[in-house]
UniProtKB/TrEMBL annotation:
<dbReference type="GO" id="GO:0016887">
    <property type="term" value="F:ATP hydrolysis activity"/>
</dbReference>
<dbReference type="InterPro" id="IPR003439">
    <property type="entry name" value="ABC_transporter-like_ATP-bd"/>
</dbReference>
<comment type="function">
    <text>Part of the ABC transporter FtsEX involved in cellular division. Important for assembly or stability of the septal ring.</text>
</comment>
<comment type="similarity">
    <text>Belongs to the ABC transporter superfamily.</text>
</comment>
<protein>
    <recommendedName>
        <fullName>Cell division ATP-binding protein FtsE</fullName>
    </recommendedName>
</protein>
<keyword id="KW-0547">Nucleotide-binding</keyword>
<dbReference type="InterPro" id="IPR027417">
    <property type="entry name" value="P-loop_NTPase"/>
</dbReference>
<dbReference type="Pfam" id="PF00005">
    <property type="entry name" value="ABC_tran"/>
</dbReference>
<keyword id="KW-0067">ATP-binding</keyword>
<dbReference type="GO" id="GO:0005524">
    <property type="term" value="F:ATP binding"/>
</dbReference>
<dbReference type="GO" id="GO:0022857">
    <property type="term" value="F:transmembrane transporter activity"/>
</dbReference>
<dbReference type="InterPro" id="IPR017871">
    <property type="entry name" value="ABC_transporter-like_CS"/>
</dbReference>
<dbReference type="InterPro" id="IPR015854">
    <property type="entry name" value="ABC_transpr_LolD-like"/>
</dbReference>
<dbReference type="InterPro" id="IPR003593">
    <property type="entry name" value="AAA+_ATPase"/>
</dbReference>
<feature type="domain" description="ABC transporter">
    <location>
        <begin position="6"/>
        <end position="225"/>
    </location>
</feature>
<dbReference type="GO" id="GO:0005886">
    <property type="term" value="C:plasma membrane"/>
</dbReference>
Length: 227
C-alpha cells in the first residue's frame, strides 16, 4: 500500500481564533482527482490554506507530501510549496513580464540554476497545457482561459506531488471552464494528484470524481449517485 499524499486525522482548522472546520478526516492517495465543494464561507479556502502552510494546523494530525503540518516550521514552507502546485482563481501572473519570464522567475525562486534546463522545463510545461506558442506574450495579451492554463503550467514546473487548485474556473465562462478542466483531467491521467476546490457543480456532473464537501463546520465525502 502506498502512503497517502494527504491525510488529516481529527484536524480542526482555524482562521485566527475562529473555528472553521472541526474533526476533519481526509485521505487522498497518489493519482486521485478530488473535488472540494461547499457554499462560500464554509471553509474551502481555509482548508486549502492550511494545506499549503498559509494557516497553521493547531489541532489534530495532518501530513501532506511527507510534511507534518502540525509541526511545520516557517522555514519549511517554501520546501512544502515546492512539492505542491497551487493554482488560484485569479491566475497571479506577473503582468510586467512575458509568460516565459513568469515561469523562469518561479524556477529561479525555487533554486534552479542551469539556464538550458530551465528553458527546457518551461517549454515542457507549456506544451502540456497546449500553450507552447504563447511564451513570448504578456499576460494581458491572453484570454482568461489562456492565463489559467499558464497558471496550471506554472504549478507543474517543479513536478509537484499534489496540485491544489482553488476555484481554478471561478473567473471563467462555462466553455473556457471546460477547456481548463480538460487540461486538469489530462494532467491527472499522467499521474498528478489533484485536489480542486470549486462551486461549479456542472463540472462535477461532467467529470464525476471523489468529492469532499464543506458544510456546517465539517468536511465529509459525498457519495455520488450513478446513472
Amino acid at each position: 500500500m502506498s502512503k497517502p499524499i494527504l491525510q488529516l486525522k481529527d484536524a480542526s482548522i482555524f482562521q485566527g481564533d475562529s473555528l472553521v472546520l472541526s474533526n476533519v478526516n481526509v485521505k487522498i492517495n497518489k493519482g486521485d482527482f478530488v473535488y472540494l465543494i461547499g457554499k462560500t464561507g464554509t471553509g474551502k479556502s481555509s482548508f486549502m490554506k492550511t494545506l499549503y502552510g498559509d494557516l497553521p494546523l493547531i489541532k489534530g494530525e495532518g501530513h501532506i507530501v511527507d510534511f507534518d503540518l502540525k509541526n511545520l516550521k516557517e522555514k519549511d514552507i517554501p520546501f512544502l510549496r515546492r512539492k505542491l502546485g497551487v493554482v488560484f482563481q485569479d491566475f497571479k501572473l506577473l503582468t510586467d513580464r512575458t509568460i516565459n519570464d513568469n515561469l523562469l522567475f518561479v524556477l529561479k525562486a525555487t533554486g534552479w540554476k542551469d539556464k538550458k534546463e530551465m528553458s527546457t522545463r518551461v517549454e515542457e510545461v507549456l506544451t502540456k497545457v497546449d500553450m507552447k506558442t504563447k511564451g513570448f506574450k504578456y499576460p494581458h495579451e491572453l484570454s482568461g482561459g489562456e492565463q489559467q492554463r499558464i497558471a496550471i503550467a506554472r504549478a507543474l514546473l517543479n513536478n509537484p506531488e499534489l496540485i491544489l487548485a482553488d476555484e481554478p474556473t471561478g473567473n471563467l465562462d462555462p466553455q473556457t471552464s471546460v477547456e481548463v478542466m480538460e487540461v486538469l483531467q489530462d494532467i491527472n491521467k499522467n499521474g498528478n494528484t489533484i485536489l480542486m476546490a470549486t462551486h461549479d457543480y456542472a463540472l462535477l456532473l461532467k467529470y464525476p470524481s471523489k468529492t469532499l464537501k464543506c458544510d456546517e463546520n465539517e468536511v465529509y465525502e459525498v457519495v455520488q449517485r450513478k446513472g
